[in-house]
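Thread title: Can someone regenerate the structure for this chain?

I was given the following input by a collaborator and told the matching structure tokens would be attached. They weren't. Posting the sequence so someone can regenerate them.
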Amino acid sequence: MQETFHAYGGQLRMSEALRAGISRYTFYRARDEGLIEPVARGVYRLAELPPLGHPDLIAAMSRFPGAVLCLESALSWHEITTQIPHHVHLAVARGARLPKLDYPPVRGYRYSEVAFGAGIEEFLEDGLILRIYSAEKTLADCFKFRNRMGMDVVLEALKLYRKRQAPQFNKVLEYARICRVEKVIRPYLEAVL
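Best answer:
Regenerated them for you:
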């Protein structure tokens, strides 16, 4: 059974374990003996692996693999905020079901197809591929959702982004066009340059 877990990066859903030929009895016995531990509802990982670096992100993203980390959670990932997100913020394509989870608390947002597919970066974290918007796309999204987030959070992110080694303001404008907030964001970009 451990070989199967290792083949999946150390983490499996119950449905994947059943398809791989592991019986429910064997699976639950391994859980009861402490060989595997729950990460999220229906998702388990080998207990021998090192502790998770971002347990809330892993739990949420493993439950919603098609979603993309966005807004305050993405700002935190890129270290361009001092805020601590109270929810895991996930974006889905328009028409998709909004992610909902009690723990960790998840807040979902629907994006147009073009805005949803733009600026996605992938990171391998604890055996799971996390889809996260780039810092530039996240800034454009923050301006789009500025009324929900608060302008103070958005301006702080822009100032911290400016202090990075190689800020790419042209990319921010490119994503602002896609998110239809170019006229809103342009004066702020001109002010920080």
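The longest strand covers residues 88-93.
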